[in-house]
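Could you join me in thinking about how sequence relates to backbone shape in a protein? Would you write everything just below, so we can both look at the same thing?
***
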Amino acid sequence: MLVEGERLKQLVIDADGEVLLCAPFIKTHVIRIILAAIPANISVRIYTRWRADEIAAGVSDLEVYDLVAARQATRLLLLDDLHAKLYVAGNRCLVGSANLTGAALGWSSNSNVELLVEIPATEPHVANLIARLDNAIEATREKRDEIAAAAALIDTPDLREQPLEAVALAMAAYPWLPRCASPKSLFAVYRNPATTSVVSGTRADAANDLADLNPPKNLDEVAFIAFVERVLEQFPSFQTVLARVPGRLSDAGGLEVIRALRPTYTEDELTKQWQIVRDWIQHFFQDRFEVAPESFVVRLRP
């Protein structure tokens, strides 16, 4: 099951219209990840509140202002009585309880119990809330400095969350891709994590992938494959790859997709990752796609 942060990233990655982010509490390391996921040509409006006591406690960061100022077509607006959490991308939106913090979005070892529900952005209650946001004022450097000075005078318990762990941060910052080079081994490790029928390196990679996929217990192999297929379809990375398949996705095209998802990878790493993704498609989407053996072209089955 995807954590709320991954669902929010998936929402904004696919944005085809302005993105609106509305949350009383916003942490710098989280908004950096979300902004990085939004296409560069998409404008963004961010609504939050700045209260000196909350800034002093560390539940929200004034440094968000600098990240917003550095991105084109992005605005930060303040509404002192804001409590709603709303995330809109084009005609889709998520509403619920989760702020833009690591704990709220599941990117923390001490995550909160939160809920985000997807509803149409045209829903009347959403339109009503967006209209009420018109009362917000533009955040300014002067206002930021004023709140910072007031916060410095307040003696309050430090409630700031710990920075995201390195692994969690890496997973949050990049669309998910599988590690296990032998997708056929995934079910064996699911049934018996200590199985000796799978070599140790593959077993470790499979265990990591299973932890991310989070399948329910006691599935047979057919149900397991169906479950993994459904989960993979939710990942933006696989959505990007599968969107290319109705034509013909060659190895060169696959490498291009992986390069966009992992721009820091070496050519060898890109090739290996694409081969893994290609094998996962062949195994978990075998009823819909095939890999032509003579050219390794991924295509729809006839």
About this structure: The first strand starts at residue 19 and ends at 22. The beta strands are 19-22, 44-48, 74-78, 85-89, 92-96, 116-120, 137-138, 289-292, 297-300.
